[in-house]
Amino acid sequence: MAAAQGAQTGVKLAVAVGAMVLAFVALVALANGILGGIGARFGYLVTDSTLLFGGVGYTQGDTSIKSKFSGGSAAIIDKDSNIVGAYDISASKEDWLGGYYLGAGMETMVMDHVSLKLEYRYADYGSIKANASDADEACTNNVGCRGYDTGVKSKADVTDHSLMATVSYRL
Question: What is the pTM of this model?
Fold first, then answer.
């Protein structure tokens, strides 16, 4: 009798832990969907089981840029326009950027509850810029660039091309 009660309690505990893990994963997926972007999908049923669609929306992502200029070719200039020296210089920056996405794809039902989806998505996040004077440890030779105008600037246009294949089971 005690063994049966122990087994029953163990099963109840396992179901409760499984439910909590499932709820946590669902909340993480929801937060990722909300923080990752928002958009709309529109389409046309080609057959009873195949949809061609397009999508558009807002997206955001964590980006970084790192550039290094070496060979002592960059001069560091102080506030009075005096040349402090020539050093190897690097510029870096991290930032969250927002932009838009455009996409297109096809989804088809392969069985009663199973569908396959293939989607291409292009995202444009804009630009990220970095200056050597923004970095705490931008210059070598134990000389920091912070506060000095080095003239070293980097810019990157951030885009993303993605191709996604999805298998979905619908209840």
Answer: 0.61
